[in-house]
């Protein structure tokens, strides 16, 4: 892999993606073979926002490679509380770790931080911007369940602020994929993502309802519509109800539909779907460990 | 000398920015950081007749040359502008503005969640698109009202 920093899905070519996914498949198949691959390597975790899955799976990945993590801990008990800049924080932690993982509420934070450090920096989510490592595990899940050939994918929910959506949409332009975006008008894809998809010549269509496209889909990627985005709670309730799925909704879907969700979910996927063959979201979350093992292996020099 | 040219008096040494898109003169002053307190001797013509543009604005600044950053941003709001360098009342150099590939440190990002709007040691940076500009950090695209993003602080 040529990239030292992993900032945006836009920087990932098909070859890059396949290199990570292939190595992730190796790690998943034979974790023991990776167990001492990066003995003594330290991963610096800089999470300026709460995170469960991303943080824990990076920690698990580092430990399963034989390494460990140093964690700056909650923002409230760090030097950030004293007014330290992000640029200073990453320059300090760079001295403690072999690679950095950054989650930050501001868009462009990972790009900026990467300009201040020499060790590899991995963007673990920058505001409503990008979340490229989530995309790699999403792609791993899609490749396992539906493949990348003639893929028709529906992406539904908060497309405006959903960083996982932005990264996934960019990454899918590398593949033969028709993308259907389903959202309320107020939460459509941002102009910048639409611009990139247009520039890439991607096949995309936008909808306000799922019904017209559901039966065509190989994959339905559901995201949470966030109540805090709406000034009026009743407006949120009216809209959110339109983007929830249950077994009745999926009666019109193909039997082999793969339902995904980056989690956490609230009520957009009914629990009754969990035990059906549609549900892939927990496996998707589990895939975070081998995918992040592969990614760390590559950025820490596993291909040299 | 025609009446048209007499609308704005000649300067001895400095820069004449001509063929500014009509209505953009005050934004040009903002790009140059010129206000009532800056002490620069400035002449401004607004919506004067122009053979090429129909009507145009013109700004003359005494004793001042423009930096490349200033010219780059100028090109975004006044793509037809010409820069005339004046010495001893004569134009000694004249050139049109060219759209740059990027502009650094002169415009602020309108996305209030962009890292460049926070107290970090980083300058704003925008890629110039065919029909707008795009923040290099947060990807926000600005097509209209670019002049409103001029960082005059």
Strand and helix layout:
The complex is a heterodimer of chains A (304) and B (153).
Chain A: H1 14-29, E1 42-47, H2 53-64, E2 68-71, H3 86-94, E3 99-104, H4 109-114, E4 121-126, H5 132-145, E5 151-156, H6 163-172, E6 177-182, H7 191-199, E7 203-207, H8 211-214, E8 219-222, H9 233-240, E9 258-260, H10 281-286, H11 288-299
Parallel strand pairs in A: 1-2, 1-3, 3-4, 5-6, 5-8, 6-7, 8-9
Helix pairs in contact in A: 1-5, 1-11, 2-11, 5-6, 5-11
Chain B: H1 3-6, E1 14-21, H2 25-31, E2 42-50, E3 54-62, H3 68-77, E4 82-87, E5 90-96, E6 102-104, E7 125-129, E8 132-135, E9 141-142
Antiparallel strand pairs in B: 1-3, 1-4, 2-3, 4-5, 6-7, 7-8, 8-9
CATH topology of the largest domain in chain A: Rossmann fold
Quickly count the helices of chain B.
Answer: 3
How much helix, percentage-wise, in residues of chain B? Answer: 10-25%
* SS content category of chain A: alpha/beta
Domain count of chain A: the total is: 2
The number of domains of chain B is 2
Using a beta-carbon cutoff below 8 angstroms, give the protein chain pair with the largest interface and the number of residues from each chain. Answer: A-B, 21 and 18 residues
**CATH classification class of the largest domain in chain A:** Alpha Beta
Catalytic activity (chain A): carbamoyl phosphate + L-aspartate = N-carbamoyl-L-aspartate + phosphate + H(+)
Keywords (chain A): Pyrimidine biosynthesis, Transferase
Subunit structure (chain A): Heterooligomer of catalytic and regulatory chains.
EC number (chain A): 2.1.3.2
């Amino acid at each position: 892999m040529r990239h030292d920093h992993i900032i945006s899905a836009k920087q990932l070519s098909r070859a890059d993606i396949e290199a990570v996914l292939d190595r992730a498949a190796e790690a998943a198949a034979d974790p023991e073979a990776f167990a001492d691959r990066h003995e003594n390597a330290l991963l610096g975790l800089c999470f300026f926002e709460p995170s469960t899955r991303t943080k824990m799976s990076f920690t698990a990945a580092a430990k399963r490679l034989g390494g460990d993590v140093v964690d700056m801990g909650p923002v409230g008990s760090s030097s950030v509380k004293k007014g330290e800049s992000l640029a200073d924080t990453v320059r300090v932690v760079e001295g403690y770790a072999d690679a950095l993982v950054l989650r930050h509420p501001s868009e462009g934070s990972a790009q900026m931080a990467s300009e201040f450090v020499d060790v590899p920096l991995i963007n673990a989510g920058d505001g409503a911007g990008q979340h490229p490592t989530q995309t790699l595990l999403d792609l791993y899940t899609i490749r396992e369940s539906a493949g990348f050939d003639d893929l028709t994918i529906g992406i539904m929910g908060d497309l405006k602020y959903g960083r996982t959506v932005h990264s996934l949409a960019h990454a899918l332009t590398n593949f033969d994929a028709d993308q259907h975006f389903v959202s309320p008008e107020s939460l459509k894809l941002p102009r910048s993502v639409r611009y990139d998809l247009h520039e890439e010549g991607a096949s995309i269509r936008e909808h306000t309802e799922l019904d017209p496209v559901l039966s065509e889909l190989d994959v339905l990627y559901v995201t949470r519509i966030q109540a805090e985005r709406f000034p009026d709670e009743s407006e949120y309730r009216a809209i959110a109800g339109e983007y929830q799925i249950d077994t009745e909704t999926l009666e019109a879907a193909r039997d082999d539909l793969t339902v995904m969700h980056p989690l956490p979910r609230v009520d957009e996927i009914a629990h009754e779907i969990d035990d059906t063959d549609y549900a892939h979201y927990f496996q998707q979350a589990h895939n975070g460990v081998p995918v992040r093992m592969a990614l760390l292996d590559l950025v820490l020099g596993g291909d040299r | 000398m025609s009446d048209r040219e007499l609308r704005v008096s000649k300067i001895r040494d400095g820069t004449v920015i001509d063929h500014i898109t009509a209505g953009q003169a005050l934004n040009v002053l903002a790009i140059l950081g010129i206000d009532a307190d800056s002490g620069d001797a400035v002449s401004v013509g607004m919506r004067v007749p122009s053979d090429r543009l129909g009507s145009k604005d013109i700004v003359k600044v005494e004793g001042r040359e423009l930096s490349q950053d200033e010219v780059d941003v100028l090109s975004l709001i006044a793509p037809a502008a010409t820069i005339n360098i004046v010495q001893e009342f004569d134009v000694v150099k004249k050139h049109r503005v060219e759209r740059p590939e990027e502009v650094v440190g002169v415009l602020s990002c309108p996305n209030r969640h962009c890292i460049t709007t926070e107290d970090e040691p980083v300058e704003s940076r925008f890629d110039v698109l065919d029909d707008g500009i795009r923040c290099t950090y947060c990807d926000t695209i600005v097509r209209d009202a670019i002049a409103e993003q001029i960082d005059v602080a």
